[in-house]
């Protein structure tokens, strides 16, 4: 039972909260006014090609939010609050349309919201190849595509498209992937087939062997599509997210069925504009080199001798020449940094093919 003194204290705190809320709302309104002024300046004189989304600027703002945070709220949570404020303000300047592998409820859809905030306009398409096509045609401002999973490795469709696309990588976001088994059924007994994206089937391989060894497996275009299929067919189970279960009114039979609990997928933002330096960046490139002893080592030495750290290297077979390989390499730094620019120039002289895929900010959102 709360006594009168405690009741008075609570009322005073609540009045203070109301006052703080009013101040926060007024400050957000001021920020929105500034965003509108930015839009007015950028569109002055009828400019229709003005660029409103600046990944390097957003990364700098979010890093500053985390650096000055001294509150009880964890740094990442504080950054997510500001991510939403920035998303609303950006929508006032220009609604941003982002293509992704759908349908709604896929992990890529979740990645879009994490990277751009809830005020973005997601555009679901049926394949990774179509994401590139939609952005290249200008029917979406950006696309978000999965690049690599910590369990299953590279996403081949994305890697193949990056070799030929004129688009540039302008951002990166990581997403923890926790798979659930969904169905109209209340248990595994009534399920005749489990459907999921091939990567998800691979990420849950051991769990499926141990818990559903006699149930047929079928790969489909996306996990969200698998959930849609399970919504329409009671004999199916789907591997997808808890969000998909709510979206498609399915029962969650099991959660966290991925074999590795640190299961994470990296996504890249693709768009037509190059990204300026943010102060903490990565650069991605794809290379091919003469098939002779030491050629890869020779290329990598261009980075090593300049103390440029390589964060990723992946090889895939070339589609042009049998037994030749393409190497996807990520390094620290922006291609406009003098040190890295010098290294890239040297690498171009040592390779038969060198394409810079883009420089982009290291994500401040964990």
Automatic annotation (TrEMBL):
PROSITE patterns: ACT, CHORISMATE_MUT_2, PREPHENATE_DEHYDR_3. Residues 3-30 form a coiled coil. One of its GO terms (biological process) is L-phenylalanine biosynthetic process. Signal peptide: none annotated. The record marks 265 as: Essential for prephenate dehydratase activity. Its EC number is 4.2.1.51, 5.4.99.5. Pathway: Metabolic intermediate biosynthesis; prephenate biosynthesis; prephenate from chorismate: step 1/1; Amino-acid biosynthesis; L-phenylalanine biosynthesis; phenylpyruvate from prephenate: step 1/1. It comes from the Bacteria. CDD domains: ACT_CM-PDT, PBP2_PDT_1. Residues 97-272 form the Prephenate dehydratase domain. Keywords: Amino-acid biosynthesis, Aromatic amino acid biosynthesis, Coiled coil, Cytoplasm, Isomerase, Lyase, Multifunctional enzyme, Phenylalanine biosynthesis. One of its GO terms (molecular function) is chorismate mutase activity. It is found in: Cytoplasm. Residues 4-97 form the Chorismate mutase domain. One of its GO terms (cellular component) is cytoplasm. The keyword Coiled coil applies. It holds the Pfam family PDT. Residues 284-361 form the ACT domain. It catalyses: chorismate = prephenate; prephenate + H(+) = 3-phenylpyruvate + CO2 + H2O. Catalyzes the Claisen rearrangement of chorismate to prephenate and the decarboxylation/dehydration of prephenate to phenylpyruvate. This is Bifunctional chorismate mutase/prephenate dehydratase.
